[in-house]
Amino acid sequence: MKKVYVLTTGGTIAMSEDEATGTVRPVDGQALARFLPGVAKYADVVMEEVFNLPSPHLTFFHLQQLLNRVQERLAEPEVAGVVVTHGTDTLEETAFYLDLQLPPGKPVVVTGAMRSSNEIGADGPLNLLNSVRTAASEVAVGKGVLVVLNDEIHGARFVTKTHTSNVATFQSPEVGPIGSLDKRSIHFRQMPLQHESYPAKPLQRSVGLLKMALAIDSRLIDHMLADGIDGLVIEALGQGNVPPAVVPGIRRAIEKGVPVVLVSRCFNGRVQDVYGYEGGGKHLRELGAIFSNGLNGQKARIKLMVLLANDLDMESIRSAFERI
Length: 324
Ligand code: ASP
Prior knowledge:
CATH architecture of the largest domain: 3-Layer(aba) Sandwich
Strand order of the largest sheet: 4-1-5-6-7-8-11-12
Helix content: 25-40%
CATH class of the largest domain: Alpha Beta
Bound molecules: aspartic acid
Radius of gyration: 20 Å
CATH superfamily of the largest domain: L-asparaginase, N-terminal domain
CATH topology of the largest domain: Rossmann fold
Order of helices and strands: EEEHEHEHEHEEEEEEEHEHEHEHH
């Protein structure tokens, strides 16, 4: 049997519902271990706790701690793959971070659950089982970090949490899942065409994330600049446009040498220099904004942190966002 490590980090998959109050929290450290007998027939599974936290509590220190453990376990020659169990709220950020730091090789699968371990219809046991099957599978080799929930396999680059409570929450809006599982088999239908990885360095720089909306102005950007941010991701409107009152803030950031990365608040499509009016994409490109291709705001922020940790200059950051 193939050996698979399950590295646990917390989240709803490891929590239970308190019947008296109806609240969900980490009451019982054994919640996940109880699922193990169900997966034992698919692989030789070793479960290890890295930490046990709700995913909104994670810091960049935790991401690095997790990356180190994943790398250590992947380096063991007899290991076929690694599963990471994780809270769903920030799962896509952790999965993309691991994807940016690990060259494609043995499968690394990130999973979680929308319902805690003792709730009716708990999805954790099946998500764990499907993730172990995927991590042990030869066809999953070389496809980058995968996210497996609800019988679907998604690439870390495109997957996002789309619903607050539905078990079908994880979707890859533009490209769809790259594969799926049923009781008997695992099917991959597409191979991710893009992959990038960078040397792992401590993520110590600070990157702001700001969503655009009607009539927003530059005040928050100016606060962030005064606070000494090292980079800024802007979730722009549509194809990459901002209200005119945001332009002075973007100009000041770029003049200070702070990279400004544009993504769209739409979760399909690209940002580009189409609109020539004040604050339109063409104007922002002329000012020196960097256009990110298809990443959402939270993932562009992770990527910018990784690039800054590697001391890339403005033009190298631009090319890292615009070439892929
Ligand atoms: N709030 C939880 C977390 O991210 C949600 C979940 O795991 O589904 O830890």
